[in-house]
Amino acid sequence: MFFPLPVQITEPQIARVKQPVANWVIIAANVLAYLLFDTFHWAAYRGASPAAILGYGFAHAGFWHLGLNMWVLWLFGNPINRRIGNGYYALAYLATIAALGFFAYLFVPVPVVGASGAIYAVIGISVLLMPRARMTVIYAAVFPLTILLGLINRPKYGIYWFLRGGEFRVSVVWCLLLVPFLEFAGMCFWWLNTGGWHWGHFAHVLGFFCGIGVVLLLPRTLTLGRRAAAWGS
């Protein structure tokens, strides 16, 4: 089990806003939508209502689906919101939801809900804009996974062969490899067990690369800094 903590920016001077207002508003909108509405009817799929193109991004299948998505959005979204500002952050988030929702409206045969596609876009943005930012991850493992950990790093106490925990730090740039790898592995696992696609994994990958595309579309003064943009012009 892994429990990540908020992303830590190593260059505080790059922050453009002190408070990530847009991200907090997005999180609140998702929570209120879940509490006040039967949002599963907002699902996007081929032939759904056009309103679902945006609505699906604020719909969740259950409490744990909502909670996990909002936790990851808090981890990555706050520093990215500070990095690019409230306006650009809100635009990038909503544009990703709309792009993925439109894709589902045209091609996906099954209902899809959730903010995870846009959240993966936020992770993609962080890979390019804050590659040196670091995240602390708390982990816990039980037997037999502890055997594998013990072979990599011999435990100090015998009990650690059966129950083990700790923490490690990882740079955000590793998401560039980990996200596509884990999602592709998830697709293959789902295919082997069900014989069909899991569109959620596909949406995650699309969202991740949407985030990379967003960075390419942002003003150079925002992504590179004023001096670097002027030097490269």
Structure summary:
This protein is mostly helical and 233 residues long.
What would you note in describing this structure?
By secondary structure, the chain is mainly α. 58% of the residues lie in helices and 9% in strands. The protein has helices at 21-36, 52-55, 63-84, 86-107, 116-129, 145-152, 175-194, 199-217, 220-223, 226-232, and strands spanning 2-4, 134-142, 163-171. It has a three-stranded antiparallel beta sheet, with no helix packed on it. Helix 3 runs parallel beside helix 5. The radius of gyration is 19 Å and the shape is globular. It starts with a strand and ends with a helix.
Q: How much strand?
A: 5-15%
Which percent bin holds the helix content?
A: 55-70%
Rg over CA atoms, rounded to whole Å, is 19 Å
Count the E strands: 3
C-alpha end-to-end distance? 47 Å
Features:
233 residues; disordered C terminus; 58% helix; mainly alpha; 10 helices; globular
Set out the fold topology.
Blueprint: E1 2-4, H1 21-36, H2 52-55, H3 63-84, H4 86-107, H5 116-129, E2 134-142, H6 145-152, E3 163-171, H7 175-194, H8 199-217, H9 220-223, H10 226-232
Antiparallel strand pairs: 1-2, 2-3
Helix pairs in contact: 1-3, 1-4, 3-4, 3-5, 4-5, 4-8, 5-8, 7-8
